[in-house]
């Protein structure tokens, strides 16, 4: 993975995750703790520290080296303002990945999430994947709108899908097919 960045929007850049991003990630997670709490699993206090982010980054980088993830960080003016990740990358007949993303509370409503999802679709296509999937909480209308805007279609509902904000939560499932039926 190279360290070069890609412009998402004027002033916003996405770069591959690096272990050296731990301090900036910790600051971003502290700044967005309340904003992200309704959409994420409960986090231990350590998660919000530089050491916690270093451990998390090292795990993601090991998974990336094994071809299981593609983690990226969104930057603006020298600070982390979001993330976009392809995870659960499966090859073989499946050729699929799960999409995850978040944007700093101070930068929502500016098209950053849509640009990040568009970037992830491009990355997945370049990686030869056939399908991307994403799940949102049923009441997360902004995220559902982002996915629809980026060409994802709703295909179902998963009861008690993930442990989010301290409870097993239902999710609306989306997918985007990236290639024709006969291409591999």
TrEMBL record:
* Example GO molecular function: protein-N-terminal-alanine acetyltransferase activity
Q: Its domain of life? A: Bacteria
| Keyword set, alphabetical order | Acyltransferase, Transferase
Chain segments annotated as coiled-coil in the UniProt record: none
Please report the stretch or stretches of sequence annotated as the N-acetyltransferase domain. Answer: 12-179
Q: Name the Enzyme Commission number(s) assigned to this protein.
A: 2.3.1.267
- PROSITE patterns on file: GNAT (PS51186)
- Per the UniProt record, one Pfam family is Acetyltransf_3
Q: Which SUPFAM superfamilies match?
A: Acyl-CoA N-acyltransferases (Nat)
Q: Does the keyword S-adenosyl-L-methionine apply?
A: no
Q: Which family does it belong to?
A: Belongs to the acetyltransferase family. RimJ subfamily.
- Entry protein name: Ribosomal-protein-alanine N-acetyltransferase
């Amino acid at each position: 993975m190279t360290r070069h960045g890609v412009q998402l929007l004027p002033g916003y850049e996405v770069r591959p995750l690096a272990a050296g991003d731990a301090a900036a990630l910790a600051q971003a997670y502290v700044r967005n703790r309340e904003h992200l709490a309704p959409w994420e699993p409960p986090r231990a206090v350590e998660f919000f520290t530089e050491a916690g982010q270093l451990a998390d980054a090292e795990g993601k980088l090991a998974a990336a080296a094994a071809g299981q993830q593609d983690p990226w960080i969104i930057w603006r003016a020298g600070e982390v303002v979001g993330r976009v990740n392809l995870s659960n990358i499966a090859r073989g007949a499946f050729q699929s990945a799960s999409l995850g993303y978040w944007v700093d509370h101070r930068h929502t409503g500016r098209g950053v999430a849509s640009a990040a999802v568009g970037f992830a679709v491009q990355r997945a296509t370049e990686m030869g994947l056939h399908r991307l999937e994403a799940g949102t909480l049923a009441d997360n209308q902004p995220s559902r709108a982002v996915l629809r805007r980026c060409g994802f279609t709703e295909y179902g509902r998963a009861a008690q899908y993930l442990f989010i904000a301290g409870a097993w939560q239902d999710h609306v499932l989306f997918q985007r097919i990236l290639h024709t039926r006969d291409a591999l």
